[in-house]
Structure formats: C-alpha cells, structure tokens
C-alpha cells in the first residue's frame, strides 16, 4: 500500500491529473455552457457523454498507476533448453541475480525486472508491463476521445459564440485552454495509435526497437518480417483484453491473464 501511495507522488503524474481536471472543468462549465447552455437538452447530453469519457480516462489512469506491472515469480527457473537460448527465451538478469522469463526486461528506474515490459512511463510513475498494459491502452483510448471531444466543443464555442477578447485575461485563458486541449489531443491520439499498431502485432515498444535489424534484413531479402509472438490481429486483441468482448473496455477485468512467464508463438 505504501508503494502504491508513493507512485502518486510525482511531478509528471500530478501534472497529468491537473491537466485532465483543467480540461474537464473548463470544457463542461465554460465552453459547453457558453456554446449550448449546460441546462439545455443538447447541453446535458454533451455533458453526459463528455463526463463518461472523462470518468473512464481518470479510472483507467489510476488503475494503470496503482496496478503492479508484473514481477518475476519467486524462484522462477526456466527449462534447461530455454536457458541456453538468447532470443525470446528466458535469460539471466545480472542485476537481479535471477532468471527472467521471455519478454521480461530489467527497468533501471524501478530497479527490478518487469514482465512483458513495454516501457517505463514517467507520466504514471511506473512501468507499463504485463499486468497494467490493458488499463494503459484503455486510458490512452479514452484520453484521445475525450480530448478530441473537448477540442470540438472548444472550437464550436469560439466559432458560434461572440466573445469579448478585449480583456487580456480572457485572451490568456482561451489561449491557454486551446494550447492545453490541443496538446492533450495530439499526444493522447498519437500514443493510442502507436499502441494500436503494437497491439496489432502483439509487440512491445522494446521489442519493436529490438526487431528493427531483423525487419531491415527481411525487407532487404524480399521477405515480410513477422514478429514471433504475432498470432493475428484478433487473437492478439484477445491476449490483451480477454476472450469476453463485453469486458474489453473494463480496465480491471484481467482475470484472463496468466503468470506472465509464457507466451504462445506463431507457427508461421
């Protein structure tokens, strides 16, 4: 519990929380109210939709922050034949003085090995790994939808409502709001699109970087590179989100996850 509370004490993480609160409050109580009126039917409908996106963004964000990304099980030991391989199989971590399963990497920030590590994210103050990857992707999805929705409301308010920009404070407020919303839209959308690509190939960010040489060699020889863990788009989605599609967008529905030490490999 103490470790989870410690994760919340981070300047980048707190800046994300403050930015999300700023975007939500300014969008609903100022831009939407000025544009449609918060008490009208259309205003209420837009407020409900945007509030749901904001709730899912906050919820999945905190789930990703507070969920342990995945630690190597105690006394983990690979099969003898696996320990001899150096590509995709278990290897020995000199820093942890223990074997690590396939797709596991040592994080120099967290100072431990993380199962199926994607990257260390300063914005959630922990690693994105096997156990919290689903919630991280759901966060990126709703953050991109919510910020783009906020941008539509912001621009619509500017175009369809007359404003008195003679006041310097009003200019600064709208300029700051536009900058924050635009930055949130671009960053969250690009983040989500990147992880959609990784999901489609069942690949982590670390594995993508490591496979650049193999990809170049395959293209040079006229062949198409395929990641060894790529089982096909739909199967890749099931591995991350689970077999029950009704639970795909629930960040806490991770009962389908195993211990994170073994992963199916493509037969192609």
What is the helix tally? 9
Q: What oligomeric state best describes the polypeptide chains here?
A: single chain
**Can you list the strand order of the major beta sheet?**
1-2
Which residues sit in consecutive blocks of at least 5 with pLDDT less than 50?
Answer: none
Structural class by SSE content: mainly alpha
Report mean pLDDT, rounded to a whole number. 90
N-to-C SSE string, H for helix and E for strand? HHHHEEEEEEHHHHH
| Strand residues, percent | 5-15%
* Helical proportion, percent range: 40-55%
How far the N terminus sits from the C terminus, by CA atoms, comes to 44 Å
Please state the CA-atom Rg, rounded to the nearest Å: 22 Å
Based on CA inertia axes, which overall geometry fits? elongated
How many strands, what sense, and barrel or not for the largest sheet?
2 strands, antiparallel
The number of strands is 6
Transmembrane segments: 12-32, 44-66, 136-160, 172-200
EC number: 2.3.1.225
Family: Belongs to the DHHC palmitoyltransferase family.
Subcellular location: Membrane
Outline the fold blueprint.
Blueprint (H helix, E strand, L loop, with lengths): L1 H6 L3 H25 L5 H26 L13 H4 L7 E3 L4 E3 L4 E3 L4 E3 L4 E3 L4 E3 L4 H28 L7 H33 L4 H6 L1 H9 L12 H9 L27
Antiparallel strand pairs: 1-2, 3-4, 5-6
Helix pairs in contact: 2-3, 2-5, 2-6, 3-5, 5-6
Subcellular location: Membrane
EC number: 2.3.1.225
Family: Belongs to the DHHC palmitoyltransferase family.
